[in-house]
Design brief:
The protein has 258 residues and is mainly beta. It is built from 2 helices and 18 strands.
């Protein structure tokens, strides 16, 4: 390299330093376990896969709606449900208490009703995805901040989940109620349609007597409304292959419960 060219680069770099634009910090770097070397972002390939998305109800156990309704959440990462600690709702969006009737299951005449709390804007989308049809007009409607601080029962663990408000909750998909999982240390991490999956974690099965009660599931083989909790498993985030890393890219497909 020409020494004059090198000198020009150093002078330009010195200007950045003088303006306080250069600092020392840390950043994540992709790593290939197979080739034992760092990878550029352009070297990372993503393997597409279909994954399960579920709507889950959390029975309300405090406040004016105690034992009268459940909060419905939607998540594309059901393996994070054992770590659930909180539910977030948007403080200014309108939420409704709505009774729904489920579709008939297995050709029988039996159907069930659910009284659920979810965002008013997302009721049609929820009905289209699950087959649960609204029964009459909403029983109540109110902004999300009215839900702040109430407690809900975790669907399959002996744990009370607290509802909080957050501006990051969006109304583009789901129910308007965001399932929040936590790390082992208790620091919350986001889950839902715009969530961060809990990678590389394995969870213990729920204690005896706590069954999973899902409203419905979006998957090729839909779950029944109630079923035994899944066995523990570990999800690996990525593995190196011949110097290139193959990570997981989730694509959700929808199917109604049968």
């Amino acid at each position: 390299m020409d020494p004059k060219y090198e000198a020009e680069i150093l002078r330009a770099f010195a200007i950045f330093v003088e303006k306080g634009l250069v600092y020392q910090s840390m950043k994540p770097v992709f790593w290939s376990t197979g080739a034992q070397t760092a990878l550029a972002e352009a070297e990372v390939e993503y393997q597409e896969r279909d994954d399960t998305a579920v709507f889950v109800k959390f029975p309300i156990i405090s406040g004016a709606l105690k034992d009268k309704a459940s909060i419905a959440i939607w998540t594309t990462t059901p393996w994070t449900l054992p770590a659930n600690l909180l539910i977030a709702v948007h403080p200014k969006e309108i939420y409704v208490v709505q009774e729904f009737t489920s579709p008939k299951v297995g050709g029988t005449s039996a159907s069930r009703t659910e009284t659920l709390v979810l965002a008013e804007k997302l009721v049609p989308q929820f009905s289209a995805a699950t087959g649960f049809e609204p029964t009459g007009e909403p029983m109540q409607s109110f902004p999300g901040d009215k839900l702040e601080g109430i407690g809900a029962q975790h669907p399959f663990l002996p744990r009370t989940v607290v509802v909080l408000t957050a501006e990051f909750v969006t109304m583009d998909t789901g129910t308007g109620a965001v399932h929040i999982a936590g790390t082992i240390s208790g620091a919350p991490r986001m889950a839902h349609g715009n969530h961060e999956p809990a990678k590389g974690n394995s969870f213990a099965a729920a204690p005896a007597g706590y069954g999973c009660e899902f409203i419905t599931a979006s998957t090729a083989a839909p779950y029944r409304s109630s079923f035994a909790c899944p066995t523990p498993f570990t999800r690996s985030s990525a593995s190196g292959v011949a110097g290139r890393s193959r990570a997981i890219s989730t694509r959700v497909r929808s199917a109604k419960i049968t």
